[in-house]
Amino acid sequence: MGSIGMPELLVIFIVILMLFGSKRLPELARGLGKGIQEFKKAANEFKSELDVEPVKREFEKEIKGSLDEIKNDLDKTIHIGTGKTDSSSETSKTGE
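RE: above sequence
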């Protein structure tokens, strides 16, 4: 079984023309076109709703940035609360 060729398409077109007439054929084609367009639109909307990977990556970036800010704030608070600076903490570590 091969694909539909030109002779088969011509026969199908003639049968449709005989069934519906030349006046209703443009209306049917318009309706079919609108139906296909609506189907494609609905399929694309459904696909975009399921495609959460870009949103997930953006969310992970925001969370990582927020966690880094919180860590930096905690480090500053700990250094201020203990009265140590970075140089004094290094000095105490080396024992000088």
